[in-house]
Design goal:
Largest sheet: 7 strands, mixed
Helix content: 25-40%
Protein name: Aminotransferase class V domain-containing protein
Radius of gyration: 24 Å
Bound molecules: pyridoxal-5'-phosphate
Keywords: Pyridoxal phosphate
CATH architecture of one domain: 3-Layer(aba) Sandwich
Strand order of the largest sheet: 4-10-9-8-7-5-6
Structural class: alpha/beta
Distance between the termini: 65 Å
Length: 529
């Protein structure tokens, strides 16, 4: 089989675009495309046609590392840095229609109202098709693929990411599986710094109280075990303003520094997961710099596709975002950004050690044994997809923001509650208080109600249990005067329709009208019933 690619380096077999075989009239899409759009084409070429070539993976990999000029050209061709939108058109292509959007997500379970893009993201059929072509290319001639195609394909994706996020150079971008892996890379380095005596036992590591569970556990597993004193920043929720977050951060940092303690690392979320709030990350990074924090790692698992990302402007030492959550890539692919002039970049290692150990994180991450790299190879196709919407990713995210706020307000109105944060602290996800009479009193209650909504109402939505009172304030109450302890986190993505949120609204209203309380789902109460 001839292994050929198009001018953008994509395998060319079967590139026909998915058409809607059966447009479903009952869905009203909330994102309406208007005018024809161009698509991006990168100039990096990928030749997979020769079965011969370097037999040493390192040689193959190193040969494909770009000159800085190439990287800059690729980045310039691909995006303009801070808005995460691809640059002007090269090839005209019709703007995506509502029917085509439905076709792109026809593999979603039509029975389910999925208002939870945040957890696992989504991937359109055209990107999945491109991924399948890469998988077949690999299986058709694995040796040619590994020795001649893989690194160039990964380089193309890294260059695309560099352009999207305003990286100075493609060498600053590594592709990894997910944000959890990126966190492991940064935290393992910190653990080694304790183990090798560069950090003293008791030096502090700062993290938000609402850091993602897996990242919190990683902080404990790697750095607390190695000797760090872990300090949490207790954030208010519901939250009124970015200033409230900044004030808590300053106070926690002062505690971390007590007695002259060194703060070696601050781990700051860009958008917290549960409850979901946009954190004023640029301001917090600046405070860390003023206060002498050694390094700042921004866990931005949710950022790209939800908020503008300009890694230079944010100014952290390490910045990671998933591409499979809000940027339409298949699971799983994320990037980790470091600065090329920072000596620490050469000290970072992928947690899976392979032949590329010592050749720099981008190279280490690009060859971690035999595995499927296809998710990492279709970043350009995801960019093609977003370019089919007028205004590209900027328009998608601002439309998602408007819609999620509109739907959040509709739910809050119906339930007599409120949003967990002001709109400016929301991207494409918002927290909405549930009626207090549901009696959510623990994380387990929240999980059981979520499971019930999935099984009995075909609604997929995460639920947050708010155990904490805002400092000096009563727990926020609903219009009946009951304390609001449970919140849904709703997402909006291009495939969502108003009916998805109405199903959620009606499910909760039905539970309330039937006198349901979460205690009915508790195992002990169920046994007694
Ligand atoms: C803030 C945050 N960090 C890290 C992660 C982990 O992402 P992944 O499971 O893709 O590694 C998530 C996932 O939702 C998250 O919300």
């Amino acid at each position: 089989m001839p292994l050929t690619t198009d001018e953008a380096g994509r395998p060319i077999a079967a590139r026909a675009r998915a058409r809607d075989p059966n447009p479903s009239p009952q869905h009203t899409h909330t994102l309406s495309p208007i005018t024809p759009l161009p698509i991006l084409s990168l100039s990096l070429s990928l030749s997979l046609s020769s079965p011969s070539g370097p037999t040493n993976p390192s040689a193959a990999a190193m040969a494909s590392d770009p000159a800085p000029d190439d990287a800059a050209r690729a980045a310039a061709a691909n995006g303009h840095g801070n808005g995460n939108g691809p640059s002007p058109a090269k090839r005209p292509r019709a703007v995506i229609s509502a029917a085509e959007i439905r076709a792109e997500f026809a593999h979603h379970d039509a029975a389910v109202a999925r208002v939870n893009n945040g957890s696992f993201g989504c991937c359109p059929a055209s990107v999945l098709a491109a991924q399948a072509r890469w998988q077949r290319l690999f299986l058709a001639q694995p040796d040619a693929f590994y020795f001649h195609g893989l690194q160039q394909g990964l380089l193309r994706s890294r260059a695309a990411v560099a352009g999207l996020v305003g990286a100075g150079d493609v060498s600053e971008v590594s592709l990894v599986d997910n944000a959890t892996t990126a966190a492991a890379i940064v935290l393992q380095h910190a653990a080694w710094s304790f183990a090798e005596g560069h950090f003293a036992r008791g030096d502090a590591v700062l993290m938000l109280h609402y850091a993602y569970g897996a990242v919190k556990k990683s902080i404990h597993a790697y750095v607390a075990r190695a000797g760090a004193n872990v300090v949490e920043v207790p954030l208010p929720f519901p939250v009124a303003s970015a200033d409230a977050i900044i004030a808590e951060f300053r106070a926690a940092l002062a505690i971390a520094k007590e007695g002259g303690r060194r703060v070696r690392l601050a781990v700051i979320d860009h958008i917290t997961s549960m409850p979901s709030v946009i954190i004023p990350v640029k301001e917090l990074v600046a405070i860390c710099r003023e206060e002498g924090v050694d390094k700042v790692f921004v866990d931005a698992a949710h950022s790209i596709g939800q908020v503008p990302v300009d890694v230079r402007d944010i100014g952290a030492d390490f910045y990671t975002s998933n591409l499979h959550k809000w940027f339409f890539c298949p699971p799983a692919v994320a990037f980790l950004h470091t600065h090329k002039d920072d000596p620490i970049a050469s000290q970072l290692h992928h947690p899976v050690v392979s032949q590329e150990y010592g050749n720099g994180l981008p190279m280490e991450s690009g060859w971690i044994g035999t595995r499927d790299y296809s998710a990492q190879l279709v970043v350009s196709e995801a960019i093609d997809f977003v370019n089919r919407f007028e205004g590209g990713i900027e328009a998608i995210r601002s439309r998602n923001h408007e819609k999620v706020i509109e739907m959040g307000r509709m739910l809050a109105e119906a339930w007599g509650t409120f949003l967990g944060s002001p709109p400016e602290l929301c991207g494409s996800m918002v927290m909405v208080g549930m009626p207090g009479c549901l009696g959510v009193e623990s994380d387990d209650d929240a999980m059981r109600v979520r499971t019930m909504l999935r099984k009995d109402f075909q609604v997929e939505v995460p639920i947050y249990y708010n155990s904490r009172r805002v400092e000096g304030q009563e727990m926020a109450k609903d219009k009946s005067g009951d304390p609001v302890t449970g919140y849904v986190r709703i997402s909006h993505q291009v495939y969502n329709v108003r009916e998805d949120y109405e199903r959620l609204r009606d499910a909760i209203n039905k539970l309330v009208s039937e006198g349901f309380t979460s205690s009915k789902l508790r195992p002990s109460e169920k046994r007694e019933a």
